[in-house]
Write a structure and sequence with these properties.
Elements (H helix, E strand, L loop, with lengths): L5 H12 L2 H4 L18 E16 L9 E13 L8 E15 L7 E6 L3 E11 L4 E10 L20 E12 L3 E12 L2 E4 L2 E5 L2 E13 L2 E12 L2 E3 L2 E2 L5 E13 L4 E14 L1 E14 L1
Antiparallel strand pairs: 1-2, 1-17, 2-3, 3-4, 3-5, 5-6, 6-7, 7-8, 8-11, 9-10, 10-13, 11-12, 12-15, 13-14, 15-16, 16-17
């Protein structure tokens, strides 16, 4: 019996070829995310990300007309505590997104908006040395499948209708008085979506390296260069593998952060894909506001 018709098989590529960055956006790190803070500190973080892509790199887009537009907002609450026996940061993230896309092979645009899947988790620190700006920790985030989801329009739904877990191991090292180097090894693991056009959708893990080099221009302002490289994420529908869904991409960008005062920070960032296989090839922009309680 045919598993699924050709159009649906093609649009499958978009689910995590271009939109997965939205579903797992909290794991898209920023420079100095793993800096520690005294126990009892809490942070409220507002993210305003936007993604634009007018090109899809991969054989699925035979017409060359695929494009993507995502405007989103996410709120993240982070608590610093030593209740774990070491410094740790219980946290939660709630996203909202407006997505408009022409999927690979589709004849028209699809659009949805609403709350995405929230995430809960935190970081356990193995090293917390503010004097030398040396930190290391493991961030674990669990994605809860309660966001808005439409089984007949899943590729642009804000929610993904599946559980997920993200692990990020970080090592941060200060170099001299002004430089900070960071390396993050990440694994995204996905549960089953049992309502993808009436079928079961599964995905292999996606692995990423996120690296940053940041520099203090002044005591209140820093700039950072970022590099992300991703590999994995092949899809299966009803346990049958889908060709050309194994993703690889490399993204470079920069960030500038500035403390407006002792409690409020503003950060802006811009990133661009420089190499992409089986995914949208575009630009990501971010405005981030941090308030220290």
């Amino acid at each position: 019996m045919p598993m699924i018709h050709t159009f649906t098989r093609t649009t499958t590529l978009a689910l995590l070829g271009g939109l997965s960055s939205l579903h797992a956006s909290a794991a898209d790190l920023n420079a100095r995310d793993f800096f520690g803070a005294p126990s009892g500190t809490s942070l409220g973080v507002l993210y305003l990300p936007a993604s634009r892509a007018s090109d899809f790199h991969g054989p699925a887009d035979s017409t060359g007309k695929a494009d993507l537009k995502v405007n989103a907002v996410a709120y993240r609450q982070v608590f610093f505590t030593d209740l774990c026996g070491t410094l740790c940061t219980p946290q939660f993230i709630v996203p909202f997104a407006d997505i408009n896309a022409r999927l690979p092979g589709a004849g028209q645009h699809s659009a949805e908006s609403g709350f995405g899947d929230p995430q809960v988790g935190g970081t356990v620190f193995f090293i917390n040395d503010p004097a030398s700006r040396t930190y290391s920790g493991l961030l674990t985030l669990i994605t809860l499948p309660v966001g808005e989801y439409h089984g007949n329009n899943p590729d642009v739904s804000p929610g993904a209708n599946r559980w997920g877990t993200t692990f990020v191991y970080n090592y941060t090292q200060g170099i001299g008085e002004k430089w900070v180097l960071e390396a993050n090894l990440e694994a995204q693991l996905y549960g089953k979506n049992d309502d993808y056009f009436g079928s079961d959708l599964k995905q292999d893990p996606l692995y990423r390296l996120q690296a940053f080099a940041s520099y203090d221009f002044t005591p209140s302002t820093y700039g950072a260069l970022r590099l992300i490289h991703a590999d994995g994420g092949e899809l299966r529908i009803n346990d049958q593998r889908i060709d050309n869904t194994h993703k690889r991409y490399t993204q470079v960008g920069f960030e500038v952060g500035h403390w407006l005062d002792k409690q409020n920070q503003l950060m802006v960032g811009l990133s661009q894909n420089v190499a992409t296989d089986n995914g949208y090839h575009g630009t990501d922009a971010l405005l981030r506001l941090v308030h220290v309680f």
